[in-house]
Amino acid sequence: MTLILQQLVEGLASGTIYAALAVALVMIHRATRIVNFAQGEMATFCVYLAWQMTVWGLPLYVALAIAAVLSFILGAAVFRLAIRPILSAPPEAIVVSCIGLFIGFQAMSLWLWGSDNLQFPRLFSNTIWTIADVRISANTAGMLVTLALLAGLLAAMFRFTRIGLAMRAAAAEREKSPYVGIEVETMLTLGWGLAAVFGFIAAVLAAPSLFLSPTMMLSVIIYALAAATLGGWDSPAGAIVGGLVVGVAETLGTTLVKAIGAELRLAIPFLLITLILFVRPQGLFGRSGTTRV
Amino acid sequence: MRRPTLRPALLGLAAFAALACVPAVLPGFMVFQASIALTYAIAILGLNLLMGFNGQVSLAQGVFFAIGGYVVAILMVDYAVPVWLALAAAVAGNAILGALVGIPALRLQGLQLAILTLVLAALVPPLVMRFDKITKGTSGISIDKPEPPAWLPLDQDSFVYFLCLAGAGLCVLVMSQLIHGETGRMLRAVRDNPVIAESFGVHVARTRIATFATSAAFGGFAGGLFALVNAFVSPDSFQLFKSFEFLAGAIIGGITSMTGAFIGAVIVVFLPEWSSHISLAMAGLIYGGTLVVMMLVAREGVAGLIGKTLSRAGAASLSMASQTKPHPKPETRTMVLAEKE
């Protein structure tokens, strides 16, 4: 029992990373009907920027704040330059464009910083609490709190601010929104920028445990895809729940099911995606779309 | 719709003859790379069939490629099966597997299928590691390249190249049988409007599954040939990146063009190679940048670009790109079945 509870806690910790990246994917999908396969690589690049700034002597949190702003600009710029011109293209063209971004950003990180694993500073203290034989680290708790805070902020922004409302409108009704004075393209650009910030946060949370390398987010994006599919591609809240579920399923599955084991841990997101697509294709929190004939 | 005339056939024959001269003209290592490019072209042809003529975006071509490679390697090394039989087994096995993947794919829309196949493709290396008793894990399997028969004055690499060329030629023939005439019209009808296709008596589900199976068989055949060319298979050869390359090659070349499949294959094989001469890390940057820029300026691929340029110059279109635009407007797509011969 203790083992299971312990794994549950570990799962929640990695689940926060998947959830944050899944939120980024879902935000982009909601706004532009695109799955940005390059999100993880863009985020890794920005974490490298933050790391570089700490090496230059900036305090960690200042470096992170600057890098978050830079990732917003990067996300917006990628949308303006590479995606917006082909927004109405068939999906396979956009997929290829995202693959290009994926390869490009990975190569850029490799070019500038090399392929060695770099130690990224921990964000939270090393304290470990023991509650009923279950060890909970301040790091895990910190990650969960960070995710909860950010999710709350995001939800509040979408719910209560004018700009949040405009962004939702632009995502839902791209053709009609201009009639009420919403600049759709600006809103979509904002959406891509915000998503990039969420991706960056996912990568920052992942970096201390995974070590910083150009391919750090390669497997994380697979789990995030599973999380977004599980939660539903139009629901940020679903993405968070999905991320946590995927994280817990991963740790529990690899410890409890011998046939999967540590080697086949990638099988778990695959099984989850398959299951959800056949049971409830729109995801747990997704609304099934109705198509006009 | 116009029957394939003599002209494309002649052009194809000329291209085939030109490709046959490659071993005589190019240095040894380029022959090796050209062979790799041919195997890629075969896999991309299969992907063209699935995406261009059936509208399903799949990243699983690398999976079938990997399985084909391992089937050939294991059969040849562990069971001493002759080359042609091992290749046939790779084709047959992947056709069955493709049909099995194709059945659930019926229920999935474009994006969902893309995600599922992406995760499946990422799962290949861990699966190879997990079943290392059969696959030998990271150490991989070395294969003896097939020996040229004594009466042929060819070295081994050239022989393998001609094997690939023959394979590619065969695939082009099969493909042109499929995409022209009755079957092709059926495929396009299912792609453009399944409901109307159904009402004209096309069995949509069966057509889709058959297309998936055929596409997978192409992928498996390509993988088997790749194992022969490379003389070695290991999880490193079948990373997720392989599926990316196939998809990129298919789109860059032109998704409904057979010529495009070859152009795309040459680009994804040689572009990283050439740009790595400039700088190893820059290779990825150039490669990725090219993909993004290609999608901005030439979304219908190189074949589409050439086709457009040629038709603008008043010449005949190079490929069947003119007949089959990737995504025609709804008004024009419904009449495909009703057209007279």
Side-by-side strand order of the widest sheet of chain B? 1-2
Number of helices of chain A: 10
- State the domain count of chain B: 1
Give the second-level CATH assignment, the architecture of chain B: Orthogonal Bundle
**CATH fold-level label of chain A:** ABC transporter involved in vitamin B12 uptake, BtuC
| Helix proportion of chain B | over 70%
Textual characterization of the structure:
- The complex is a heterodimer of chains A (293) and B (341).
- By secondary structure, chain A is mainly alpha-helical.
- Chain A has a single domain, classed as ABC transporter involved in vitamin B12 uptake, BtuC (Orthogonal Bundle).
- Chain A contains ten helices and two strands.
- In chain A, strands 1-2 form a two-stranded antiparallel sheet.
- In chain B, 73% of the residues lie in helices and 1% in strands.
- The C terminus of chain B is likely disordered.
- Classes of the chains: A mainly alpha (293), B mainly alpha (341).
Please render the helix and strand layout as text.
The complex is a heterodimer of chains A (293) and B (341).
Chain A: H1 2-32, H2 39-55, H3 60-83, H4 91-113, E1 128-131, E2 134-137, H5 138-160, H6 162-172, H7 184-210, H8 218-231, H9 236-256, H10 267-279
Antiparallel strand pairs in A: 1-2
Helix pairs in contact in A: 1-5, 1-7, 1-8, 1-9, 2-3, 2-4, 2-7, 3-7, 5-6, 6-7, 8-9, 8-10
Chain B: H1 6-20, H2 22-25, H3 28-52, H4 61-79, H5 83-105, H6 110-122, H7 124-130, H8 132-135, E1 141-142, H9 156-179, H10 181-192, H11 194-199, H12 204-230, E2 232-233, H13 240-253, H14 258-278, H15 280-297, H16 301-312, H17 330-333
Antiparallel strand pairs in B: 1-2
Main location (chain A): membrane
GO molecular function (chain A): transmembrane transporter activity
InterPro entries (chain A): ABC_transp_permease (IPR001851), BCAA_transport_permease (IPR052157)
